[in-house]
């Protein structure tokens, strides 16, 4: 039976449930191993006057203390722009920025030494919001634009016009395993780096560059991560370099394990955004023209922010055809850790902003937002060209939306809710739909590439290595299935090996939802090379001159663990023995495979191109319930319908869909990054930063796949599933907005719609003007007072 | 008679005997497991009892077997575990035979990245040890102490529902208790006194078995840190890097762990020892006082409720302590015992300022008694937090009123998280007495109450948010009283 399409278990599931699946900090401590940690900047911005580590050095067990001066090679790194310091040099740019590295014999000595370091900084006024950056014109990179038609004229001539500002906060990835790395020194100045990273090649390169080594002297390995979500795409670099610096300087093994607070304080998050929008539309709510300015909070260096912004701009219209449109994008410099990749990669913010426009139009015309959505959805035959010129082919959204409207009983429930809201003194309910169209491919062309190494052994078992890293998403499980099917063997004969730059060089990050697409296709390519050799070998053995059966490779079949000639299936041989015979006949049973996504490209100058191989599409209907007196929100029901093509593993995909949607629900409801006026993150651990817990999950969660097998170009007609589900949670926010709209408030509801934010909307302005916390990009000027007392600590 | 005393702890871990000595007694259980024993299946994420990744099961002797419950090993000290059997994920199953919980987690795709999974497997096993769990609602409510960032939980609930509990080997079968109980029994009455250098200072630990011994120790060491559940001290230790060096551990004092309701109908009193856990109180209040049980159910996750104590919540003196508004409106009485005296203090007079107590040197909180609402009284308890479960309150309140027809004859209002201590809103109470119970009255009460408080802005909410919640809670109470109880609770 073929493996693809079967819900086989995650390839590490048995290890997960028994605790035998090891993560970085579970590796045994070597006898010479040093504990490594850093001390971060105490302030958000300023000039370093003095780093006083004299007393730290005296602490028994402290082996080495290093600063930027000790970095032998490149002191800055960055995938697109080399602008991020490994260790602060001269100035500090954000609270928690690594300034000094300490290596010690024990965790206790390290902890004591960290407390003994004093970093004197002459503080300067930091930039702590998007608005302040705009005011001071502090940007990173160049302005970007995508434009079609004459939006100014289209809006001017429209019957209705609306404009506004929409803000959404950032989000902490909150992978459970915090950043971690162990570096073992090896011969000839080599280093073996074990890193919790989504991108082994990048770690290899940045470590080599920082230490002045050549790339072939560094091996980076990653067996698995305890979650990544984008947070370990680039940001695993600093911990890996710091441990490598210690290993390089001392010749001893070096281990760095961030604790959760350090991780949250010093690493980047989902970008907060400010959207300024203007829209013109007709009496039916049909959009004629739109202008939007997207400002993202990039933090103190570029990191991936330009690529994130690019994806925001490419998703500014979400699922809607807008004839005349201009999208401007700008990266705002702020004194925060450099914001980075997080599942959705700029898509969620832009799509939420578009949904905000839809809700605003609906409120203005007193329409059901679903009507406005349906009137503006991309068409299947016309109205199907995106603002960047890509034709949106195989658009199933109109069908998905109307199927979901039906299956969720949207209309009836909406009517009931509106009536009930007039009568219920305690709570308000709301229901909303939101569609998702998410482009699949890296928008940076050269990243759309993967290689794979497949080794077949003489007992017919297979090892597969690719550049994909396993962070729970199940890429290894899916590749296992793909490879098993190529050889017609059962999946348990295939093992996925740890990701290592020794086996797979020059890889791309495991990101953009496309890891199975890319690495799976590369693995299949490798399998087919081996298989071709086996076919030729088998064909010669199956040929029977006396029976008149000529050698015929095209009749050789691999199925159910057997290999046979379809003309005489009774003459079969098991895959294992065939491999053994082939080896004895000196046939190579290993191969490298390669895949590069065909036909994708994007011109950044013109803002035009075909950046996406295809689109994953879907929609969700969410219902929320709000306590009228406290603003507390719960989500009793979500219905979700998504087109992920032919699923390689329906259970893995269902896990991605539910998990992604709940993660998105956290972003739009409860996950609130709170900073004080000094730029210190106050919500830096799960005590104060609240990701969804079990009781936040909707009691009813209907998750359905849209039956579709037209994604013919992609591997086994599947579609990428990693990121798109997250954006389905925008429906939850939309439902909150509808609950508030039913009593005529909530026009300026932000993301996240916390209880506090909802109560602000529910409270008449005269009763109580609620100042907002600065939330990594929320309005400037009004920030939480630094705590005058410890009165509210538990 | 000088009792036998020992300088080590006796702990069993996965059926194996361990004696723990010296500074190791101050280690957290998770550090001991991972670093000293190499049992790295237990994962550390937050080090503050807010994620459940480090969940283990702790068995306490109960008759001729062990009673197991889940705790967070990252904030439990070794010294709390003398006489206990700890089961970690390594102890759940044999290499060739997974437990039904583990098998279901695999079959139902309950793990993705896997980092939280050992903690879930332990918490789920703990739930099945303590009774049947069949519905999604059971698993949902029982697993609030475990965070997962990947799955969105539904496949974990499905794994729970799919688990064939009848095939689950109970831990008392898997780890025969007789020998462990005999071993513990022979050491049960001995005093534990341990001296060691702890965080660079001389450390001294006493773990007595009676209140008399405890107050005797406190008399001689009045600055000792008294530890019961350690759910706050454990966090402070992890986050600040220093542990209390002189410790009085109450975990072996059985006479402090009880909770019962005495009296009948309108004269019921809840009496509890200081070491009654939230789990003990939740079970008792499910029948006796569902409104308080509802608030207790939101007190941390199950792991915290299994070990956190009533006494700890009171003595910790946080203005956002979940239990205090209830205890304030019911005017609970605290029994404080020292070698010289036993006295009773009303809880409303116990707090003198932020974390300042009317607790004299050498005094130990031994008992809490609180009368329960009568049939004439209506009680509303409130905890507003960013997340429903496993969160610290942004705002708490208790409203108790007594009605004669439409007329309010008595009103007690307690508000938390709006001042350095939980407070009684006495002006508001005075206003309410004699008023007609209607929306206008309650609106006025809210307007009055905000003048009695002084909230600050912090990470959990702005001062103005807390002011508005204070205003609104009176209206919420009023409207809840006008709505049928089923409709009110369906929301919770």
Find the biggest chain interface. Answer: A-B, 102 and 104 residues
Look at the structure and give the mean pLDDT of chain B: 95
Span from first to last CA of chain B? 55 Å
Report the helical percentage of chain A.
Answer: 25-40%
The helix-and-strand class of chain A reads alpha+beta
Quaternary organisation of the protein chains: heterodimer
Describe this structure in words.
Chain A contains 20 helices and 31 strands. In chain A, the strands form eight sheets. In chain A, strands 3-7-1-14-11-12-13-22 form an eight-stranded mixed beta sheet, with helices on both faces. A five-stranded mixed beta sheet of chain A has the order 9-17-16-15-10. In chain A, helix 9 runs parallel beside helix 10 (347-365), helix 10 (347-365) runs parallel beside helix 19 and helix 14 (475-487) packs parallel to helix 15 (515-542). Chain A is globular, with a radius of gyration of 28 Å. The N and C termini of chain A lie far apart (58 Å). The relative contact order of chain A is 0.13. Chain B has 492 residues and is α+β, with helices and mostly antiparallel strands. Chain B has a five-stranded mixed beta sheet with strand order 1-7-8-10-9, with helices on one face. A five-stranded mixed beta sheet of chain B has the order 3-2-6-4-5. In chain B, strands 11-12-17-13-14 form a five-stranded antiparallel beta sheet. In chain B, helix 2 crosses helix 5 (154-162) and helix 10 runs antiparallel to helix 11 (290-296). The longest helix of chain B is centred in the last third of the chain and has 20 residues, at 463-482. The radius of gyration of chain B is 23 Å and the shape is globular. At the A-B interface, helix 1, helix 3, helix 17 and helix 20 of A face helix 2, helix 3, helix 4, helix 5 and helix 17 of B.
Task: Provide a compact summary of the structure.
The complex is a heterodimer of chains A (794) and B (492). By secondary structure, chain A is an alpha+beta fold.
